[in-house]
Amino acid sequence: MSKEVAILRYGHRPARDKRVSTHTALVARAFGADGIFFDTTDKELKVNIEGVVERFGGPFFVEMGGSWSDIIERWQTKGGEVIHLTMYGLPLPEVIEGIKQSPKKKLIIVGSEKVPGEIYQISEYNVAVTNQPHSEIAALCIFLDRLFEGNAVRGSIQFKGAKLKIIPTARGKRVMECNS
Ligand code: SAM
Fold first, then answer.
1. What is the pLDDT of residues 8-20, one digit of tens each?
2. Does the CB atom of residue 2 touch ligand 1 within 6 A?
3. For residue 123, which of 26, 70, 174, 175 sits 20 to 30 Å off, Cα-Cα?
4. Residue range 29-66, pLDDT digits in tens
5. Which ligand 1 atom sits closest to the C-alpha of 140?
6. What are the beta bridge partners of residue 128?
């Protein structure tokens, strides 16, 4: 499987979605994606995500602006495929093996406001993480966990350039400062 995996957060609204979009990006990073595109610009959001990358390591890119259709077209023109997470799609267990076997780089779309019908048509896969309405954060988290076969929760993703590293402990908090 190609290692290049990015997220497109469709329709982020700076006044309403800051917290959910931040968590979407943090899940993307923690669970092994390479970066996230937003089709709107929110400088505060970018600074917050990049602050986490600076402290806890990367690489993880945050790209803002440009229309969703341009982002998708650019991705597909460069040989990538698009996976749209939606409760209306095919169940994750039915499609995940095919997605893992495809060598193409993957752009995973999650919505905030209503996703236009065109995205359902141009996506190579519309994937449901259950056919019930819930959350883009949860859907992305479970999708990435299945895609990367549990690597993140096993702790086997390497983050580079971190200033801080958490030392797992049964009680309390242990954080090590790294000299990189
Ligand atoms: N109201 C919006 C609409 O009608 O399209 C959806 C809001 S939902 C909270 C935001 C995003 O979460 C969706 O666009 C989708 O990407 C994701 N999502 C929610 N439930 C999902 C599910 N069961 N499977 C996959 N993705 C899901």
1. 999 999 999 999 9
2. no
3. 26
4. 999 999 999 999 999 999 999 999 999 999 999 999 99
5. 26
6. 91
| Nearest residue to 79 (alpha-carbon basis) of 21, 133, 124, 136 | 124
Which residue has a Cα nearest atom 2 of ligand 1?
A: 114
Instruction: Quote the ligand 1 centre to 138 CA distance (angstroms).
Output: 10
pTM: predicted TM-score of the whole model, two decimal places: 0.96
Q: Which atom of ligand 1 is nearest to the CA of 136?
A: 12
Residue 1 reports pLDDT greater than 80: no
Model confidence pLDDT, tens digit, residues 100-150: 999 999 999 999 989 999 999 999 999 999 999 999 999 999 999 999 999
CA angle 50, 56, 60 (to 5 degrees): 45
Q: Using a 6 Å cutoff on CB, does residue 136 contact ligand 1?
A: yes
Q: In which order are the strands placed within the sheet that holds 35-38? A: 61-64, 35-38, 5-9, 106-110, 81-91, 125-128
Q: Chain centroid to CA 32: how far?
A: 8
Q: What is the DSSP letter of 157?
A: P
11/45 Cα distance (integer angstroms): 14
End-to-end CA distance of the chain: 30
Q: Which of 94, 113, 115 to mutate to test the pocket of ligand 1 (most atoms within 8 A of CB)?
A: 115
| CATH numbers and ranges of domains, the chain | 5-177 (3.40.1280.10)
